[in-house]
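Field reference: sequence -> structure
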Amino acid sequence: MDGDRFHDLWGRLGGGSEADRIFQALSERYDEPHRYYHTADHIVYCLSSYDRATGTMGQNDVVEMALWFHDAILEIGSAENEQLSADWFVELAGSYLPRELVTEVSQAILATRYQEVTREVDAQFVMDVDLSGFGQPWKAFFADTCLLRQEASHLDDARFRAGQELFLERLLSWPGVFHTQYFQDQYETNAQENIHQLLEKLKQPDLWV
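Structure field:
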C-alpha cells in the first residue's frame, strides 16, 4: 500500500503527522497471517478501481478513506467485521479529523455489509468499488473465491457454500449488482455471468478438495 498516498489523503481531510502512525497500524492489520483475500492487495485493487472511476464520477475523499479502512478488522467467524472496522476508524480518526467527516466515512464503511440497496451516494461508490472484482474475467473472479475459502477455514464446505449462496442470491435480487451507471457499464454483465457460474460451480460436492 502507498503510504504517501494515505498521508496526502489524511492531510487533505484535516489530519497531521499522526498519519504515519495510523498508516503503520493499518498496514499491520492487512498483513495479519489469517488473511488471504482481505489483504493489502485487495485495498490496492480497490484504490485502482476507484482511480479509474474518478474520471467519470469525480474524486471523493470520503469514499477513498472508507476504502482504506473498510476491511481493517477481520475477526474470523465474526459477523461484525464491518462494524468493528468502522468503529476502529472512528477511534483512530476521531481526535484528528472533522466529526462530520468521520461520521460520513464510518457510514460508508458500514455499507459494505451489503444488507440492502442504498441511495446514499458515498455508500454506492464504496460498494461498487468493493464489488468491482465481480466484473473480472472468470478465472480471476474464481481465484478470489478460492482465497475467500482459505480465509474461511473455520467453516466446513457446506456452511461456506451456504454463506456464499446467500450472499450471491441477495446480489441477484437487487436491481443490479452495481448501483452507479459507471460501474454498471463497466462490470455488470461480467458480474452477473460470474455469479451465475459460481452458483452452479458451488453445487459440485468436491469443489474444495
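Note: The chain has two domains: 1-116, 131-209.
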